[in-house]
Request: fold
Amino acid sequence: MCSRPPQPAPPAILHSALLPVASLLGTWQGKGAGKYPTIEPFEYEEELTFTHVGKPFFEMKQRTWHPVSKLPMHTETGYLRMTPRGPELVVSDPTGLAEVYSGSVQRDGEALVLAFESSAIQKTATAKEVSSMTRTLRLAPDVSGSLLLTCSLAMAAVGQPLQEHLTSTLALSPAISAAQAKSLLPHATLIDCRNADEVASLSGLPGARHVPLDVLLSGSIQETLPDLDKSKPVVVYCHSGRRSLRAATFLRQHQIPALSLEGGLAAWPASP
Reply:
């Protein structure tokens, strides 16, 4: 008797506890620099990814590489946990450290700021001594309105007082897969940016708001989307994903956490 192959699990729904920090979801890339009294200053390129499985935490994966040689420099993994007492952060890295942080989530004008202080640092027998660390994630628009994530780390180590060690500025790629988009439902707002003829010939996703790309780009956000909740993720789609990428980029320039459905409406039925 032939057994049927296991069916892929449906995408997890974003946990409601993550809604205040939902804008972090996705892959961020950019450049950074490091310094400390015991080493020479250096630069690096960085990728930082936040994913979820439907529980009240983000899985966090970070890697850096040399900006010229492209050789790997550092990597770390961890979890950003959203609890009733505030955010908590757990991080481990190959230098032999395991770090536990408690923190806060605050609004500073248009910026969303997550600030963490270490409550425990464990090290292997051969790891360097680190007595305390702080980490900050600051999500804010730049002068053009695009959302940027600034990551900073300070540490007290090898006899040195607490001071800045690493700072990077990262931008989010707004394209996400259909499975990732489904995981944001029912919390996300869906926007169909196809034209009226396309919508008439092929209906869109249930619950989506129809705002053609030319209408979105030519008007003000307040007039086009007057009741849009900026605290929730926004997923934009079209037929192939090209127009929705333009729309998502435009919305992010207006401090709206918009994401583009990669592959467009055609990719939706093929996703698990």
In short: Residues 242-252 form the longest helix (11 residues). The mean pLDDT is 90. The helical segments are 178-184, 196-201, 213-218, 221-224, 242-252. DSSP finds five helices and 15 strands in the chain.
